[in-house]
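User: Design a sequence. Structure:
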């Protein structure tokens, strides 16, 4: 397992935990897909819905 795969697995486990305990909602989980921290397939596995691309520009705060 290379660094990229290990990082992806760690991020998926972290995001999964936060989603399952109610800290993150589907929109927050989608943010991690947009940032290429988890895959679209992992998003679907976690939330049960297909990931839909957002056409909206990101909001920078």
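Assistant: Done.
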């Amino acid at each position: 397992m290379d660094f990229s795969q290990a990082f992806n697995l760690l991020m998926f486990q972290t995001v999964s935990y936060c989603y399952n305990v109610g800290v993150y909602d589907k929109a927050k989980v989608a943010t991690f897909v947009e940032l290429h921290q988890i895959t679209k397939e992992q998003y679907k596995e976690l939330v049960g819905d297909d990931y839909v691309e957002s056409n909206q520009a990101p909001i920078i705060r």
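The first helix runs from residue 3 to 20. The chain has a mean pLDDT of 92.
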